[in-house]
């Protein structure tokens, strides 16, 4: 005769941690860091949180809002702040820090390009940029419109660089371009030859700081 099975109360099972927006974003951030943004799906998050996908939409309306929340968490962890120097140098520092933050997550950068992030830390970033532009004497409308251009350029740079790095690893496209420029003939490409030595010169950081400086100077001039 088989031993009698002793029933186990459901109350003895460990309770699931309560769902929350912060908990959802924390799990999504962990998956993105370990496996990439492409793996951050509502189905995957629901599985990790031991719930159904539909219950997650109480906390985020859609994937776009989730991506915006991920960006806000990244900014909170590495708050872009200006260093020493002039207001212009400080602003370039802030923008470069934000760009470099996104270099590690090119898929998120591509997503942010079509978003309108509205998290508190992203708003603080906007406020910091506006404050530095104000210090530099940039008129209010120029600053208000310019902050959009500056942050879009930062995001696009990160998205493009991430894609370039992946392509270069796979196909050596950068080397192909360098060879093509070196072998170009002056009678066919006279303007290219004129700047050939500078076309691919400079480090990534040097070119990034130059680009932001040029945009900032343009905002002051017009």
From TrEMBL:
The keyword Transcription regulation is assigned to this record: yes
HTH tetR-type domain ranges (all copies): 18-78
Keyword DNA-binding set for record: yes
Keywords of this entry: DNA-binding, Transcription, Transcription regulation
InterPro entries: Homeodomain-like_sf, HTH-type_TetR-like_transc_reg, HTH_TetR, Repressor_TetR_C, Tet_transcr_reg_TetR-rel_C_sf
Location of the DNA-binding region in this protein: 41-60
Pfam families reported in the protein's UniProt record: TetR_C_1, TetR_N
Name this polypeptide is given: TetR/AcrR family transcriptional regulator C-terminal domain-containing protein
Organism this protein belongs to: Cryptosporangium minutisporangium
